[in-house]
């Protein structure tokens, strides 16, 4: 069977070769009528684009790499879904790299861009997966790269984030407004910026309310449900127990709700629980979890649009995108119990 070429598709569709190429690479910039005409010929002839050959000729693979520390975390699902939606509409494929928070794996996936197997990177990590020279302009050293969630601190890297200090302040103020004064916190790893900033917001809100921060009411974990179970168990052993717990992640809060039920506490009658993120399982917990939600779909959309601009040599509107968070009040928070 003869090899089918773009020339054959162009001839049968009655368009030029450039139009066929645009339809295959960037279908959103071609009119629906032309796109349907070209794709019907493509389907009939059984044509499959040679992505690798095109990448070698054009220096573009039309593939992007999304590097995440844990793909089982429900926080990332809406983000990745939106990244893929935007990418596919622009003719790009998405490769998902689960690093298990391993710096070596981050660098391994990042090498794909250097070898032209991918055109750009979206990464959730505080570590930049490349060595840089501080004396050289950053843009000359890095491929197209966007940092999300746990962002790299390097100045000049494009970032899509929320204000985690304000997230912590919002959660704590909600509990204060319900009359709680003995508010505990279950944080994430001590070295993670998101945990540091959310705790700073928690401390600031308590200080603004003239409440002394009790360090014994702060536990540290790893953002998992298991750390929520263990942290809550420790907190409820205090002689003066908290009347509310601020969990710095929804998975932590789901673990906290589980152990509180096992210990015989009623939520929110005996103790209130609030989380952060707005993951889908939170609204189905028992009771449904009050949370400070991040705009996960927007994080995915804006990070992919920013990356595409960098890949295509356009200047993104912003280097730092700080997106709004939202307090979502459900059944796990209520008025402080009477003494």
Automatic annotation (TrEMBL):
* GO MF term set: DNA-binding transcription factor activity; transcription cis-regulatory region binding
SMART domains per the UniProt record, alphabetical: HTH_LACI
PROSITE patterns this protein is in? HTH_LACI_2 (PS50932)
Arranged from A to Z, the UniProt key words for this protein are: DNA-binding, Transcription, Transcription regulation
Q: Does the keyword Transcription regulation apply?
A: yes
Task: Specify whether Transcription is a keyword of the entry.
Answer: yes
Q: Pfam families from the xrefs?
A: LacI (PF00356), Peripla_BP_3 (PF13377)
**Residue ranges of domain HTH lacI-type in the record:** 4-58
Q: What is this protein called?
A: LacI family transcriptional regulator
């Amino acid at each position: 069977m003869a090899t089918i070429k773009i020339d054959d598709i162009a001839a049968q569709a009655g368009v030029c070769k450039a139009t066929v190429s645009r339809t295959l690479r960037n279908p959103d910039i071609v009119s629906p009528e032309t796109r349907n005409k070209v794709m019907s010929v493509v389907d009939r002839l059984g044509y499959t684009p040679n992505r690798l050959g095109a990448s070698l000729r054009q220096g573009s693979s039309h593939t992007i790499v999304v590097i995440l520390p844990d793909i089982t975390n429900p926080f990332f699902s809406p983000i990745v879904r939106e990244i893929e939606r935007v990418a596919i509409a622009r003719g790009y494929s998405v490769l998902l790299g689960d690093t298990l928070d391993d710096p070596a794996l981050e660098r391994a996936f990042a090498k794909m861009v250097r070898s032209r197997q991918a055109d750009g990177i979206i990464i959730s990590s505080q570590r930049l997966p490349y060595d840089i020279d501080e004396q050289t302009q950053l843009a000359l050293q890095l491929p197209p790269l966007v940092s999300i969630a746990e962002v790299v601190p390097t100045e000049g890297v494009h970032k899509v984030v929320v204000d985690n200090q304000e997230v912590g302040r919002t959660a704590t103020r909600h509990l204060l407004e319900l009359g709680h004064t003995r508010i505990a916190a279950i944080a994430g790893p001590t070295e993670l910026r998101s945990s540091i900033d959310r705790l700073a917001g928690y401390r600031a809100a308590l200080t603004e309310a003239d409440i002394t921060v009790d360090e014994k009411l702060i536990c540290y974990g790893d953002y998992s449900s298991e750390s929520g179970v263990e942290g809550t168990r420790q907190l409820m052993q205090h002689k003066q127990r908290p009347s509310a717990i601020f969990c710095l992640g929804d998975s932590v809060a789901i673990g906290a709700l589980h152990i509180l039920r096992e210990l015989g506490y009623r939520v929110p009658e005996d103790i209130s629980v609030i989380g952060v993120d707005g993951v889908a399982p939170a609204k189905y917990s028992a009771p449904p979890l009050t949370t400070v939600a991040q705009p996960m779909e927007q994080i995915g959309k804006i990070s992919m649009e920013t990356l595409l601009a960098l890949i295509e040599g356009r200047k993104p509107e912003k280097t730092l995108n700080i997106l709004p968070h939202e307090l979502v009040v459900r059944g796990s928070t209520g008025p402080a119990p009477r003494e």
